[in-house]
């Protein structure tokens, strides 16, 4: 073995033993995949990955996604040995490594940078949160799409600012997951030749051999998707691995899948090729045996030979630093020649909005007939997109229904050249792939674009895992969910969301906004565009809702505070509160007018966003919902779960306790009691009930 080969092997075994020791010390984790996949990852990072460890957020860096998130110890060991610097705001110390040796020693412990699965925003060098299998791979497609869009939009002759590649290390579990199939199918259609998935084919899952459930021909499947497929029969063959990566780099018309056959727990003689090496620590005796098989001191823990970090620094570090410095020089020249485009890139990278982004928003006059909030949202979206070129997105085959197709210039269709569009298009067609769509939207956001993803609200059931991870990562993805209630009508209960509002409100980090009319839609978009650290779900109607007369009722700017007094008693001392969101606000207003004609003092409160309302001061919240007014009626065409927070335990709650009904929208609404007459009747009952209660049980 040559000196160079010996040094390579020393680095690989250091990755293995660091991962083994981290898992063993934690008494928790997965050592097998880091052991088996170490050569695959080492070859990529040391010889090919273009990444400056001093600047881990350099815009043109190659991306490495560990979709096999259970192998997190391998990624943390790489980050430590490569000397990747901390860049996330979550680090308080300056000039700190993203992962230190002490961090590895506290793997899976509270406060450690080495969490059980990689967490985006917490540990620099982690490109996306992974763990739920298939998510990382699907998100990597969004990163690859982003590079293609950035290159097509901003590159100019002799100024190739964006030309990075995206690599994802996948496990058997990733390849099995449906979201992975959705994303791979779309990536093949889009001919994303900058995307490389590395499939660590080790034939093991938690339950045992993959032969229990997984006997398909993966290569044939991906070939059918339109991918280039390469086989590497031995994960320890660095030269064959290197040749595979070179083939990927030479491929310019499709994504690449490299199938690498490895043995999980390689080097652990007694647990070789078993599920135990995958799903739990090796144990002290197996650790000793594994280290001895590597020629390692079996008693050494977290041992790093001096030559190893130096070797990474001399190759991985110097290559990345040179590439990043060259890019900085090129961008400086680009800035001189194309200042307007450079300014867009700067704003995009910092999450800043363009000047005057909201200067052309439409105006919606009062209209009793009104329009669907999906219609008004489409108009507002296009107005903002005309001022913000990096606002882009699409729907899961439903853009005509969700009103999310961009017609403002420039727009166009994002497609591989020759397919009716090009890579500069801002309209994305995800097909019937809701789950992949939302994972891809996260990848676009992590690439600093401002994406939106749209579908019917009911179909969030198909993409929940990706949406949840987006909220966990605090990404400002815009979700546009339409057909928001039983009022979509004839399609019936299969398409009528009931429990979905409650479930999204229960998701930490998610902001949900359900506007009542066209002008609340405008204000909702004002809020959305200024949010930089959370996703937003904009929930919209299919049916027309009245555009309220804002000269008679309060301005819609109250949306920014989550809830506001829309209509009030003359003396601002109401006897009953009517609370609603979305399409149920208008019947509350009608009930309010009816009660006023009877001399009953009511207050209508529009509550488009509970999350925004909860962020307000107690003083403001009490001014909207006076604690002393106990008579309350909450109205929402969905599950009433959660409304007791605002209606009180004794308040009336108009909601759904069953699935919907297939009939015209007005018939369905009447069937379930969502009428002004019923709301007014409930208000009278509430007033009578609380007057009786306050009088000590005696009639007035």
Number of separate structural domains = 3
Q: Could you list the spans in which at least 5 consecutive residues all have pLDDT below 50?
A: 267-277
Mean pLDDT value = 95
Strand content: 5-15%
**CATH topology type of the largest domain:** Rossmann fold
Strand order of the largest sheet: 10-9-11-12-14-13
Name of the CATH superfamily of the largest domain? Thiamin diphosphate (ThDP)-binding fold, Pyr/PP domains
How far is it from the N-terminal to the C-terminal residue, by CA?
99 Å
Number of helices: 25
Q: Major β-sheet, in short?
A: 6 strands, parallel
Number of strands: 20
Please sum up the structure shown.
This protein has 700 residues and is of the alpha/beta class. The chain contains 25 helices and 20 strands.
Polypeptide structure, described:
The chain starts with a helix and ends in a 6-residue tail after the last helix. The chain folds into 3 domains: 3-324, Rossmann fold (3-Layer(aba) Sandwich); 367-546, Rossmann fold; 562-694, Rossmann fold. Helix 7 (178-190) crosses helix 16 (434-446). It is built from 25 helices and 20 strands. The radius of gyration is 28 Å and the shape is elongated. The protein has a 6-stranded parallel beta sheet, with helices on both faces. It is of the alpha/beta class.
């Amino acid at each position: 073995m040559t000196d160079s080969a010996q040094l390579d092997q020393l680095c690989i075994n250091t990755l293995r033993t660091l991962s083994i020791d981290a898992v063993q010390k934690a008494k928790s984790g997965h050592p097998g995949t880091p052991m088996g996949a170490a050569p695959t990852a080492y070859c990529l990072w040391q010889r090919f990955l273009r990444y400056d460890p001093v600047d881990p957020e350099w815009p043109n860096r190659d991306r490495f996604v560990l979709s096999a998130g259970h192998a997190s110890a391998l990624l943390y060991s790489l980050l430590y040995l490569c000397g990747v610097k901390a860049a996330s705001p979550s680090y308080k110390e300056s000039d700190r490594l993203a992962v230190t040796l002490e961090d590895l020693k506290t793997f899976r412990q509270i406060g450690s940078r080495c969490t059980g699965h990689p967490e985006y925003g917490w540990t620099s060098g982690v490109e996306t949160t992974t763990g739920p299998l298939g998510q990382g791979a699907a998100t990597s497609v969004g990163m690859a799409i982003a590079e293609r869009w950035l290159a097509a939009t901003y590159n100019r002759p002799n100024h190739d600012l964006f030309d990075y590649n995206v690599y994802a290390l996948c496990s058997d579990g990733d390849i099995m997951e449906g979201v992975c199939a959705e994303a791979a199918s779309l990536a093949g259609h889009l001919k994303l030749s900058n995307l490389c998935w590395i499939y660590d084919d080790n034939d093991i899952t938690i339950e045992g051999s993959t032969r229990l459930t997984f006997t398909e021909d993966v290569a044939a499947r991906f070939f059918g998707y339109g991918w280039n497929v390469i086989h590497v029969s031995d994960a320890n063959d660095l030269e064959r691995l290197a040749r595979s990566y070179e083939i990927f780099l030479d491929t310019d018309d499709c994504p690449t899948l490299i199938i690498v056959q490895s043995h999980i727990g390689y080097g652990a003689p007694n647990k070789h090729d078993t599920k135990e090496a995958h799903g739990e620590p090796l144990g002290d005796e197996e650790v000793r045996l594994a280290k001895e098989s590597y020629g390692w001191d079996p008693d050494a823990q977290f041992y790093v030979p001096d030559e190893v970090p130096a070797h990474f620094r001399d190759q991985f570090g110097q290559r990345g630093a040179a590439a990043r410095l060259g890019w900085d020089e090129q961008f400086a020249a680009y800035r001189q020649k194309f200042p307007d485009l450079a300014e867009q890139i700067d704003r995009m990278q910092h999450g800043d909005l363009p000047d005057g982004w909201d200067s052309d928003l439409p105006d919606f006059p009062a209209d009793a007939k009104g329009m669907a909030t999906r219609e008004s949202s489409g108009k507002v979206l296009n107005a903002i997109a005309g001022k913000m070129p990096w606002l882009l997105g699409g729907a899961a085959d439903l853009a005509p229904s969700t009103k999310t197709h961009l017609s403002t210039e420039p727009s166009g269709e994002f497609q591989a050249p020759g397919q009716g569009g090009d890579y500069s298009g801002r309209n994305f067609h995800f097909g019937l792939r809701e789950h992949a769509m939302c994972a891809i939207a996260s990848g676009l956001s992590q690439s600093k674009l401002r994406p939106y993803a749209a579908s019917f609200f009911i179909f969030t059931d198909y993409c929940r895992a990706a949406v949840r991870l987006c909220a966990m990562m605090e990404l400002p993805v815009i979700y546009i969910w339409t057909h928001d209630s039983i009022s979509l009508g004839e399609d019936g209960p299969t398409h009528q969301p009931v429990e979905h509002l409650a479930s999204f409100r229960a998701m930490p980090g998610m902001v949900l906004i359900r506007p009542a009319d066209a002008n609340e839609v405008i204000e909702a978009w004002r809020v959305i565009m200024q949010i930089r650290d959370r996703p937003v779900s904009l929930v919209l109607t299919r049916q027309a809702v009245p555009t309220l007369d804002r000269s008679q009722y309060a301005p819609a700017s109250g949306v920014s505070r989550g809830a506001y007094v829309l209509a009030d008693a003359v003396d601002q001392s109401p006897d009953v509160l009517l609370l609603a969101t979305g399409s149920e606000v208008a019947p509350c207003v009608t009930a309010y007018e009816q009660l006023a004609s009877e001399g009953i003092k009511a207050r209508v409160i529009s509550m488009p966003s509970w999350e925004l309302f909860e962020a307000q001061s107690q003083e403001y919240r009490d001014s909207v919902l006076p604690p002393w007014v106990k008579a309350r009626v909450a109205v929402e065409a969905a599950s009433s779960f959660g409304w007791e927070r605002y209606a009180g335990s004794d308040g009336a709650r108009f909601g759904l306790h069953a699935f919907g009904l297939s009939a015209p929208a007005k018939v369905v609404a009447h069937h379930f009691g969502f009428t002004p007459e019923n709301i007014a009747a409930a208000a009278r009952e509430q007033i009578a009930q609380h007057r009786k209660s306050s009088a000590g049980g005696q009639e007035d």
